[in-house]
Amino acid sequence: MNLRARIHISVAGNIGAGKSTLVSLLSASTDLDAFPESVAEHPYLTDYYVDPARWAFHSQVAFLTQRLEQHRAIGAHAGPVCQERSIYEDYAVFGTTLWRQGILSERDFRTYERLFHAITADLPPPTLLVMLTASITTLRHRIAHRGRNAERGITDGYLADLEQGYHDWMAGWRACPALVIATDALDLAGDPAAQQAVVQHVRRAAGL
Question: Alpha helices of the chain — where are they, by DSSP H?
Answer without folding.
Answer: 19-29, 45-50, 52-76, 87-89, 96-100, 106-120, 136-146, 156-172, 192-206
